[in-house]
Write a structure and sequence with these properties.
The complex is a heterodimer. Chain A is built from 5 helices and 6 strands; from the N terminus they run H-H-H-E-H-E-E-H-E-E-E. Chain A is extended, with a radius of gyration of 21 Å. Chain A has a 4-stranded antiparallel sheet with strand order 2-3-1-4. A two-stranded antiparallel ribbon of chain A has the order 5-6. Helix content of chain A is 31%, strand content 21%. Chain A has 2 domains: 2-40; 61-137, Alpha-Beta Plaits (2-Layer Sandwich). Chain A has helices at 2-11, 17-23, 28-40, 78-85, 111-122; strands spanning 61-69, 90-95, 102-108, 128-135, 141-142, 145-146. The mean pLDDT of chain A is 93. The longest helix of chain A has 13 residues, at 28-40. Chain B is α/β, with parallel strands linked by helices. Residues 3-10 of chain B have low confidence and may be disordered. The chains are: A alpha+beta, B alpha/beta. The A-B interface holds A 4, 7-8, 19, 21-25, 150, 152, 155-160 and B 27, 29, 32-33, 36-37, 42, 44, 46-49, 51, 53, 135-137, 185, 303, 307-308, 310-311, 314-315, 357, 359, 363, 380, 384.
Chain lengths: 160, 397
């Protein structure tokens, strides 16, 4: 039940409890209770809109930074990763396998702001060995949503 | 005796049309389609195909086939690799066993496969029994193959299942074929294994050939689908028809198949090789990709259909319109008798007043009167709006 509910909310977090209940053969009251519990348990972290910055005419600068770090004795990667993740500029932060350790997604208003964050804050943290910054040039798909919808309007309105 | 020319053939010889073709009525869906097409802003629940675009990896496989220059004919039977994959798929999913070189034929959709099967086995006047309400093409296809269509009505109280009693009652010395379609378009009915066994027993007893259109078999929501071909003593008397349109959202690719004992496939192939030659190679390549790597896409689509079905069943019950919970396919077949309208009037009125298209049940045979077909191959947000409007129209809200 929770699994199916989460799938539906991931598709559309604004789905009404009545609609969710009908789809899952449940009741609106039960759905509200489940969602409340999932929020309380921090299984559901937040609800956000997925915005197309280009159409919203927001010229945000987005970048992905590959960060190599020295793991600390006892703390491993976690302590440093937490320090990095808490910066307001950091949107996402993941520990990765492969040629670098942390993958950090950041967003700023200008190129200078992002560059400043990398050179003044991120690179200077004790334990950070190197950074490689890649700027986002164009978005085609984000969080599972294609920027351009696939048109399927030629479908016949009535067919056998 | 010397007859005047006009009475030898049709009453009006001048239009050149053959009698058995002239006798075929226009499709009820066709008439309705014209009206819907000319009405702007319609939310359509009248669509008999998936609303999903074919999964990208399948489309990409078709593009790649073109890039590799796959633009020629294939064997009349279809690509052997695809036939092998079909045999594997039918084995794993339905417990069927067919020999790819001789017992599988790739066709242009199940529509062609059904036409071939009927033409391959019917002598003029042979009777084909089918259950109704049913897909719109069955009765005309039988007539075009010079057979006699014998409908057995199924009823909502009985979840639109075909039962051995009414089937027996329809059998005559001319009965040759039983045509099955479970899960059923338009009712969403399905038969359990036990219920199929009862039907199979009648077929064996009366030496009937079964042509089974199982195009919706993947879209079964209750119990796993059983094919009648897998039951004891049925393989030798069954033509199993299936395709890719519904499970893999590939209607426009036009690719289906028939599996049956070699002599039956050979007979069907003789018609197919002269009439069609082969199914398009690009579509066959796409179908190959669907069978090899499309399972997860299919499961995901089925899950979405299942949720939409739940939503619609719930909504119609709230409206006070009785509704059998469909076991498969993607149609709901609610009764509209409480509104006092005929299915045609209901559908036309709904279209005119609320701009929602549903298909009058009468399009699926006389037994469909009193019902409408609502397809849930439509996005949920559209269904939500449609349901509001239907409730307003039906006067229950």
């Amino acid at each position: 039940m929770d699994e199916a509910l989460l799938n539906l909310l991931e598709e559309n977090a604004l789905s009404a409890p009545e609609s969710l209940a009908a789809q899952l053969n449940s009741t609106p009251a039960e759905i509200k209770k489940r969602i409340g519990q999932l929020e309380k348990d921090r299984v559901i972290l937040a609800y956000k809109a997925i915005v197309d910055d280009e159409r919203a005419k927001r010229n945000h600068v987005k970048a992905v930074i590959e960060v190599r770090v020295t793991p600390e004795r006892e703390g491993g990667f976690d302590r440093l990763a937490h320090r990095i993740a808490q910066y307001r500029e950091v949107h996402s932060c993941f520990l990765m396998s492969g040629g670098f350790d942390l993958l950090v997604f950041i967003e700023g208003k200008t190129l200078q702001e992002v560059a400043g964050f990398v050179s003044e804050k991120l690179s200077t943290l004790p334990g950070v060995l190197s950074t490689a910054t890649h700027f986002n040039l164009k978005t085609y798909k984000q969080q599972g949503v294609l920027r351009e919808a696939i048109a399927h309007e030629e479908r016949l309105k009535v067919s056998p | 005796m010397h007859l005047p020319v006009s009475s030898v053939s049709s009453p009006s010889r001048s239009d050149f049309i053959a009698d058995h073709v002239r006798a075929i009525p226009r499709s009820g869906i066709r008439d309705f389609f014209e009206i819907v097409q000319s009405t702007p802003g319609v939310i359509s629940l009248g669509i008999g195909e998936p609303d999903f675009v074919t999964p990208w990896h399948i489309r990409e496989a078709a593009i790649y086939a073109l890039e590799r220059g796959k633009t020629g004919y294939t064997s009349n039977l279809g690509l052997l690799t695809l036939r092998e994959e079909i045999a594997r798929y039918a084995g794993e999913n339905y417990g069927l066993s067919y020999d790819p070189p001789t017992e599988v034929l790739i066709t242009v959709g199940v529509s062609e496969a059904l036409d071939l099967a009927l033409r391959a086995v019917l002598n003029p006047g042979d009777e084909v029994i089918y259950h109704e309400p049913c897909y719109v093409s069955y009765s005309p296809s039988i007539a075009l193959a010079h057979g006699r269509a014998v409908a057995v009505s199924t009823r909502e109280e009985d979840e639109f299942k075909l039962r051995p009693g009414p089937l027996r009652a329809a059998i005559t010395p001319r009965s040759k074929v039983l045509l099955l379609n479970f899960p059923t378009n338009p009712t969403g009915a399905a038969l359990s294994k036990t219920e199929l066994e009862e039907i199979a027993a009648v077929c064996r007893e009366h030496n009937l050939l079964v042509i089974t259109d199982e195009i919706y078999s993947e879209l079964s929501y209750s119990e796993p689908h059983t094919s009648i071909a897998s039951l004891p003593g049925m393989r030798e008397r069954t033509i199993f028809l299936h395709g890719f349109s519904k499970a893999f959202a590939m209607t426009g690719f036009r690719v289906g198949y028939a599996c049956a004992p070699a002599p039956l496939i050979d007979a069907m192939m003789r018609i197919h090789q002269y009439g069609i030659l082969c199914a398009p190679i690009v579509s066959q390549e796409a179908a190959l990709e669907a069978l090899r790597h499309g399972r997860n896409d299919m499961l995901e689509m089925r899950e979405q259909y299942r949720r939409r079905r739940n939503f619609l069943v719930h909504a119609f019950r709230n409206m006070g319109l009785p509704c059998f919970e469909p076991r498969g396919a993607f149609y709901l077949f609610p009764g509209i008798k409480p509104t006092g309208k005929s299915s045609q009037d209901f559908a036309l009125g709904l279209l005119k007043q609320e701009k929602v298209a549903v298909v009058p049940g009468s399009a699926f045979g006389p037994g469909g009167e009193g019902y409408v077909r609502c397809s849930y191959a439509t996005a949920l947000d559209q269904l939500e709006i449609a349901v509001e409007r239907i409730a307003r129209f039906a006067g229950t809200k």
